[in-house]
Amino acid sequence: EVQLVESGGGLVQAGGSLRLSCAVTGYGFNNVIIGWFRQAPGKEREGLSYISPHNGETDYQDSVKGRFTISSDAAKTTVYLQMDNLKPEDTAVYLCALRRTAYSGYFLFYSEHYDYWGQGTQVTVSS
């Protein structure tokens, strides 16, 4: 059974930092894409970043570029999202997802291209 478990969310003041983790079990890191998304109440799910763990390729949505950093630890089959300079508008549930085949392209910011999802972790940024 494939499972993705997010952790590391919480309450932080504007300008602060958090590091989210996405632990993957039941699936290896060869030739996959791991993406980070977020969903705020009343808004559509937004793709933030993705990584191809086997070659380190990454990409970021403009809204988080320069503030968020994605990385992976293949030995732990875990992907991280370091979030710095957080803003109140970053408040959302953050979810990670796995795509079973690795590609590159803007379509990887859309949720329908992923096969497995975690349950999410809440991030709240106070002003």
- Measured on Cα atoms, how large is the radius of gyration? 13 Å
Count of individual helical segments: 0
Main beta-sheet annotation: 7 strands, mixed
Average pLDDT, all residues:
96
Distance between the termini: 40 Å
In what range is the share of β-strand residues? over 45%
What pattern of helices and strands is seen along the backbone?
A: EEEEEEEEEEE
Description of the molecule:
With 127 residues, the chain is mainly beta. The protein is 0% helix and 50% strand. The protein has no helices and 11 strands. The chain has strands spanning 3-7, 10-13, 18-25, 33-39, 46-52, 57-60, 68-73, 78-83, 92-99, 116-117, 121-126. The strands form 2 sheets. Strands 2, 4, 5, 6, 9, 10 and 11 form a 7-stranded mixed beta sheet that branches. It has a 4-stranded antiparallel beta sheet with strand order 1-3-8-7, with no helix packed on it. The mean pLDDT is 96.
What is shown here, in short?
The protein is mainly beta. The chain is built from no helices and eleven strands.
What layout of secondary structure does this protein have?
Blueprint: E1 3-7, E2 10-13, E3 18-25, E4 33-39, E5 46-52, E6 57-60, E7 68-73, E8 78-83, E9 92-99, E10 116-117, E11 121-126
Parallel strand pairs: 2-11
Antiparallel strand pairs: 1-3, 3-8, 4-5, 4-9, 5-6, 7-8, 9-10, 9-11
Key structural traits:
127 residues; mainly beta; seven-stranded mixed sheet; four-stranded antiparallel sheet
